[in-house]
Amino acid sequence: MKKHLLLNIILSIGLLSSCQAATKNQKPMYSIIYHDVLLEEAKEAIRNNDEHITPIYQAIKRYVDTVSLHMKPLSVASENKKNIAPSKDPRDYITLSPYWWPDPSKADGLPYIRDDGKRNPEVYEYPERVNSTLFAENAELLALMYFFTGEEKYAAKAAELVRVWFLDPVTGMNPNMTYAQHVPGMQHIRGTGIIDSRRFLKALNAAKIIESSSSWSSEDKKELQDWAKAFRYWIENSTNGLTELKAQNNHGLWYEVINQVLVMFEEDYDYFKQIVNERFLPRIALQIDSDGSFPKELERTLGIHYSTFALEALSFSDKMCSKNGLNLWEYQSENDRGMILALEYMIPYYKNPDAWPHMQINDFNTDRAAILLYDAGLRTGKKEYFDLSKLIGYDNQRNIEEGYSDVLPDINRLLYYKINLPD
């Protein structure tokens, strides 16, 4: 009990100090969801024509100049939207739950039944699934290019994409996820689809990055903050949201992270402190086992993927907490659970995924492990994690998930370029 109370005091003091520092503008906050030190390092390396980052930067800039700058803005009310939500409002986000298939024993296939880890290709008949990622990642690429170059054209296009998706009275998304990851034929309300919003909420980060631009006004910021507040109210009070809040697997972790992104964009740092302290930290104690595993994720057919996905949620939160005086990588619960314990459990399998003793029906992308290890090294100062990150390596390429027609540049190629630097 004393350890927990002490952590509460440290957390409160740290977050309060950070908020006071932000108020005094002692240190600028460039982004919500990235380590700003990595943004600064990348910008400096690009400015100095560092040979290790220049080819990556030039390749991404070519994509942004030829694709992102000229793309047609995307929305949930897209022209090719065939599956409209039961509300009959095209501005309501709707997708199909990916692992649910028609029941072969029923003439109409209803209700759908679950086959974990096997994606139903019908998911791509719902354009929001793809468009939300294409929209948000292109908006981020444009915002980052503005950050690196200072050229207004990038911020202007990012602002256009954000306005069309969120704020336009005809195309703007309604601030709810009532019909996300719906299951045909199922009658009860589910909260699992809220996790979809982790994709498009990255666009809030883009809006944060272009705050200094003349293309993004204080009125734009206020209107988007109002959207974020409405969405957060829905998450915290709807049946869907209250159901997802109770999830004890990666969904519960990502529910908290999504909520934290909204709160950070609203700049309500006191409330951020409250939800991290009262809800997120207890999840670490409950969801990580004494050996460092995530028991709920070990039940899945993609065990190493979902265990990593849970760790990624914690690391995602840590990036926001780092701007508010807390280091989640160094947090340890009363029952001695923490991110380091979870990472140490995974390390043997990150080095050799074939040794994974649980189910994993698809290949695992070890790039994700390299990034987690690099973040651990950054936040703990332990060289061993940097070394392991380099040992595993990062291939500087990423094909986005099956079903996309294009290949998006990976933002992490810039931020984590040092993983592949020679010792």
Computed CA radius of gyration, to the nearest angstrom: 21 Å
Q: What's the helical proportion of residues? A: 40-55%
Number of strands: 4
Strand fraction band? under 5%
Low-confidence stretches: 1-26, 398-405
Question: Could you characterize the architecture of this molecule?
Answer:
With 423 residues, the chain is mostly helical. The chain has helices at 2-23, 36-47, 54-66, 128-149, 152-167, 197-200, 202-209, 218-237, 239-245, 250-266, 269-287, 295-298, 303-321, 339-351, 367-380, 383-392, 412-415, and strands at residues 94-96, 100-101, 113-114, 179-182. A two-stranded parallel ribbon has the order 1-4. Helix 8 packs across helix 9 (239-245) and helix 10 packs antiparallel against helix 11 (269-287). The relative contact order is 0.12.
Write the layout of secondary structure elements.
Layout: H1 2-23, H2 36-47, H3 54-66, E1 94-96, E2 100-101, E3 113-114, H4 128-149, H5 152-167, E4 179-182, H6 197-200, H7 202-209, H8 218-237, H9 239-245, H10 250-266, H11 269-287, H12 295-298, H13 303-321, H14 339-351, H15 367-380, H16 383-392, H17 412-415
Helix pairs in contact: 1-11, 4-5, 4-7, 8-9, 8-10, 10-11, 10-13, 13-14, 13-15, 14-15, 15-16
